[in-house]
Design brief:
- It is a single chain.
- The protein starts with 12 loop residues before the first helix and ends in a 14-residue tail after the last strand.
- The protein contains 10 helices and 6 strands; from the N terminus they run ααααααββααβββααβ.
Length: 277
């Protein structure tokens, strides 16, 4: 079944909205405590510093408000389950926009401005409102670039949980001891969307991927499992799964560190990961 035809998991819109605001708030509160030296620290994201990573948080959340200010597209073009695979094509424009944003203002100003805009934007906007996606909504479009599609506000907010959780993990990795917490609903939505993206990329039912307590998916072509213990099982925790799905951790390294258990001849996911660029 193609990504466009596969039925996406349903999400509770009120919980997703609250999760986006909660996770963004936790990041904001942590960033506002950072010293200039900490803001200048390197991250695992190429040549980005913590300052640029902080700016990226405000870009990805601010994209909601910017998108709602733009004309409504005629029809949805980007199914939620196709979003993870499409992020790699926009990485260059996003990196460019992030650097410009980080240089334009202090983190405190960026977070204050974004908090006000997102709260105001979400107060009235219905879940069904169609909005353009990357790169226009991120404010990172260059001359000649067009939107990669349109999706509902409800779906776009689910993608924001992925951005927020993934980059919260990047921030915690860059500054050991900072320990920004993860909103449970944001972590759950992020985990589930990336698990479903794996099932889209490798359709089938021969392998069961378990990410307790949030997700279980069937994937990979082969003999279909119907009852009893599945012959091919992969199990890991949510953060390890998110790191695997986004390329922060490699499959072999996760196995060697006992962060993943994999049994069965079709339980090797190394050729399917990462799912996002």
């Amino acid at each position: 079944m193609s990504p466009a035809k596969k039925r996406a998991r349903s999400y509770d819109s009120a919980k997703i909205r609250a999760a986006v605001l909660a996770q963004f708030g936790q990041v904001r509160d942590a960033v506002l405590t950072l010293t200039p030296e900490q803001l200048g620290a390197p991250t695992r994201l190429g040549d980005w510093t913590v300052r640029e990573l902080a700016a990226h948080f405000t870009m990805t959340v601010g994209a909601v408000a910017r998108a709602l200010e733009m004309p409504e597209p005629a029809k949805p073009e980007l199914p939620l389950l196709e979003w993870p695979a499409g992020t790699a094509t926009e990485s260059g424009a996003i990196a460019h926009g992030t650097r410009e944003l980080a240089a334009s203002a202090q983190p405190s100003e960026l977070f204050a401005r974004t908090t006000a805009r997102i709260e105001e934007a979400l107060a009235e906007a219905p879940d069904t409102r169609l909005i353009p996606t990357l790169p226009q909504a991120l404010g990172s479009a260059r001359a000649g670039e067009t939107s990669t599609g349109a999706m509902t506000l409800a779906d776009f907010l689910v993608t924001r949980t992925v951005e927020l959780v993934v980059h919260t993990d990047d921030l915690n990795d860059a500054l050991p001891g900072l320990d920004v917490p993860y909103d449970r609903q944001a972590l759950a939505a992020c985990t589930r969307l990336l698990a479903d993206a794996l099932a889209v990329k490798a359709p089938g039912a021969s392998t069961e991927v378990r990410i307790p307590p949030f997700a279980v998916v069937q994937c990979v072509e082969g003999p279909r499992h119907t009852r009893g213990t599945p012959p091919n099982v992969v199990e890991t925790d949510p953060l390890t799964w998110i790191r695997l799905a986004t390329g922060r951790v490699g499959w072999r390294a996760a196995l060697d560190d006992a962060k993943v258990s994999a049994s069965g001849e079709r339980a090797d996911l190394s050729k399917l990961l990462p799912l996002m660029g």
